[in-house]
Amino acid sequence: MTLPKGAADTDRPQLYGADYSVYVRIARLALLEKGVAYNLLPIDIFAESGIPDSHLARHPFGKIPALEHGDFHLYETGAITRYVDEAFDGPALQPADAKSRARMNQIISIADGYIYPHLVWGLYVECIEKPKRGEAPDEDRVESARGVAPISLTVLADLLSEHRWMCGDRLTLADLYLAPMIDYAVEVPEFREMFAEHRNLGDWWQRVTALDSFRDTQPSS
């Protein structure tokens, strides 16, 4: 994807990855919320031909996303999103005070450690993606995810409280991390029912889905 902001192609960050990836989408959301023009260069790490050597040179662990900005090379979504926030003009995506920033980092850690493995892989992939491919879900994995889902939602609802966004009145990286993960998880009917039990999360989700950046980064498939 190219976001037209008038910058020359050579000045734009180059983001490598696939648009279906949760973590690529997080990086794209951060770039868009900062108003940064960028190019998305497709890399499919699940391709039958394997991971290209050129990408392994960018990311030795063979993951996505990876970022190039001029002669600066970076991988790991946490590093990329913080770099984007700090290197470019635009609205700050990290709180200025220590307590709120710590809360943001806590929520990101929750997303990485519990939401992504259990709600995306344990529920969405097992209950939605595998049946589409004619594969049987791993019931043990689904059962484990079912146990984590209500705890995760209660924790997020408690942290959100009556705020507009996860860390207060302003959008932060915490919201951008959760958004692509929740977007997959709500496709699972039983998770959607759990989610609907938390009014404040529903209000937050309406604000998330109204973001131009969220709509502009919807996966193509």
Can you walk through the features of this model?
- Helices cover 56% and strands 7% of the residues.
- With 221 residues, it is an alpha+beta fold.
- The chain has 2 domains: 79 residues, Glutaredoxin (3-Layer(aba) Sandwich), CATH 3.40.30.10; 119 residues, Glutathione S-transferase Yfyf (Class Pi), Chain A, domain 2 (Up-down Bundle).
- The protein has a 4-stranded mixed beta sheet with strand order 2-1-3-4, covered by helices on one side.
- Helix 4 packs parallel to helix 6.
- It is globular and about 45 Å long.
- The two termini are 15 Å apart.
Salient structural properties:
alpha+beta, 2 domains, Glutaredoxin, 7% strand, Glutathione S-transferase Yfyf (Class Pi), Chain A, domain 2, 221 residues
User: What's the CATH architecture name of the largest domain?
Assistant: Up-down Bundle
How far the N terminus sits from the C terminus, by CA atoms, comes to: 15 Å
Strand content: 5-15%
Poorly predicted regions are 1-8
Domain unit count: 2
- Count of alpha and pi helical runs: 9
Quote the average pLDDT. 94
- CATH classification, class level of the largest domain: Mainly Alpha
User: What would you call the shape?
Assistant: globular
Portion in helices? 55-70%
Number of strands: 4
Radius of gyration: 18 Å
Structural class designation: alpha+beta
CATH fold node name of the largest domain: Glutathione S-transferase Yfyf (Class Pi), Chain A, domain 2
